[in-house]
Design goal:
Blueprint: H1 4-12, E1 15-16, E2 21-25, E3 27-29, E4 32-34, H2 38-54, E5 59-65, H3 70-81, E6 87-96, H4 98-103, E7 108-112, E8 116-119, H5 131-155, H6 160-167, E9 171-174, H7 175-180, E10 186-188
Parallel strand pairs: 2-5, 5-6, 6-7, 6-8, 7-10
Antiparallel strand pairs: 1-2, 3-4, 8-9
Length: about 200
């Protein structure tokens, strides 16, 4: 049973244990928004572990996130994939960049009717300190890009080569477009359709 301090802590993380819902959103940093970072990733993984160990019942992720580093998206992708519970992901608002990656690991993937998804390669920060460091950075970014393409191709109707072409620029999908290419399973207009 959850004691009062555990419940208060989970609520501050965006986890609602009674409803088995985790909210994943961007946070404000001054005048701009901050996407998926270390702190948010750790909060979501902690909440997933907590809910998954309580009982085997649906976990709902509500995602309104502008993205973030791909390493954090891969960590969430793996954590969601390892859950025994059925995980439903609901994209509401912006499912941009790395948020669109970890949505793909959900057992059921939804978008609300006015949500938008963005896929792209993202931004690579490559060191120019030494030639060997430059080569190492390039190798890492090629690996992460290929992993991202594989994740999108796994459940979608798109080939890996088509995904690579789409990721060469910022490519936006409405809910209808995302459904058509298999990046989601269903468009919802009421919460009850997913809960």
């Amino acid at each position: 049973m959850t004691n009062k301090s555990e419940l208060e802590h989970l609520l501050t993380l965006g986890c609602f244990p009674k409803e088995r819902v985790i909210y994943i959103g961007s946070s404000e940093m001054g005048e701009s928004e901050e996407g998926l970072d270390y702190s948010l990733t750790q909060s979501v993984i902690s909440s997933l572990l907590y809910l998954d160990r309580q009982k085997e019942s649906n976990i709902i992720l509500i995602i309104n996130c502008l993205g973030g580093q791909c390493e954090h998206a891969f960590a969430l992708y793996d954590a969601i994939s390892m859950c025994k519970s059925h995980v439903c992901g609901i994209g509401a608002g912006q499912i941009y960049s790395s948020a669109s990656i970890f949505l793909q690991s959900c057992d059921t993937r939804y978008m609300t009717q006015n949500a938008m998804m963005l896929i792209h390669y993202g931004n690579a920060e490559i060191s120019r300190e030494t030639n060997s460091q430059l080569q190492s950075d390039i190798k890492y970014y090629e690996w992460s890009a290929n992993r991202m393409y594989d994740i999108y191709a796994l459940k979608s109707k798109l080939s890996k080569s088509k995904i690579k072409t789409l990721c060469d620029k910022d490519t936006y999908f409405s809910a209808e477009e995302a459904l058509k290419v298999g990046l989601i399973d269903k468009i919802i207009t009421k919460w009850d359709e997913a809960f």
